[in-house]
Here is the input.
Amino acid sequence: MKCKHCNEMLLSLAIDRRLDRISSDCKAHLETCSHCQQEWGKIKNWVQVLRAPEPWQPGEDFIQKLTEQSMREKRRPLISESTWRELRLGGAEWHWWDWLFRFPKSATVVGFALLFLLVFGNTAVQVWDTVGNFDYINGNVVVQAATLKNIEVGSRITKGMSIQTAKGAESVLALRDGSEILLSSLSRVSLQDSRQVRLERGTAFFEVEKGKGTFRIQVPYGEITVLGTAFAVTVEDELCTVTVVEGVVECASAQSRIRVQTGYEGVLHNHTAPVLRPTPQTQQTLRWVMEMRKKRDTQELRTYYPSLSGPDTGDRP
Amino acid sequence: MNNGSKYPDTDPSREHEIDLGFQRGERWAFEAAAREYFAYLVNFITQLLGDRDRALELAQEAFFLACRAHKQLDPRQGLTPWLFQIARNLAYKEFNRRKKHNAVSLEETMEKTGMQIPSAWPDPRQEIHNQDVKKRIQRAVDRLHPKYRDILILRLIMGVPSERVSKMLNMPVSTINVRTHRALKNLRALCGEEGLNEDEVF
Here is the structure.
């Protein structure tokens, strides 16, 4: 017989004092096991120490009074269902904060998660919404539908932001996917996503990063779809011109669609099908792009070498 | 059969009659229930709270609540576990409230519960030591898990037979015996944590 079972029996014996509850196995074990003999002595002592000397016993008068009162209580209405349930089942009325005490680990995790959201939530949303940043600004650039107050190089461009350049102003937008938009003066572009742009007016040069999915440009008279190329788009009152420098661009209007290759330009009219025509002097047409790039590089150099001075002509680094 | 315990065992058929009578709201059943079970409630709550007056109040409250809801008694479950459950929940509400507000004087508790070390100590220093031992034991009892504390009070302190406790707590007798053993084992461990050497106790 195991000592554990023997001890259970011995404890019952010490409490109930009934020898008939002790099996013969236990008696035999007790005679041979010195450990159980010691335990038996301790158990007896513990029971003796813990035992209350005299339990309370109600007198006859008390029982009669209690019965009388019980009969009166019987006629009283029942207590509320919730209190009764609490007393009968031992479950207190449920409050939302009891959840914190019942599941302390989960509550801690949720608490930390909420704290994290509170502290970094705004930043996380901003990062999620960011589609790019300003890489170069020259002149007066206005941003609509945004909370940006001071626009400077490095400022975030978020989804839905509309960027407008004033007369003589220009800007370079570096998108999150690595693409670049060079915005000429008197132009307005709004960014739905880093791969979806709407050119509302003016001229912009797009240098699209390859392998990041389809890049879509919406213009007033159609849509330009590209996969990885460099081209300029000019939006005028009645037409929109797409000048391709590298790769292939698909221009679609309400009537039809055409593919524009390097050295060609597509013209999207308001009410007619798109027209394809050659542009022999592409580099000359896009001189403004080269100039803006030079200016940006110069501005970038000035941040590292402040001793460089002079106007942003792009003639010297 | 009375086996040396101060609490008598009730005949099961008689107990069932009391249950049915109580459910019907008959006076004789109320009186029999008071006679048979009320002392258990009072003594259990007294041991838990260490306050006999408050225990009497709570036991009466539990008994009267049961009388008011006598029609809800399920005779198959029995009156004893039902009544004990109500009293136990009332007592634990009070126990937790006192524990939270630390309103119980330990010395007072020991005096009122009657938990005593068996021998006479004429020496005042020995008396102080004895009081300290009592305090530590009571602290250990208070720290026990409720499922062991109930059984420890009913079985070890009150000496209620295991069959009766099994009816009161609605558990098999074997579970009661195992838990009694574990309750004492845990109590001894907790007493050790309280810095109480067993040699000091006996």
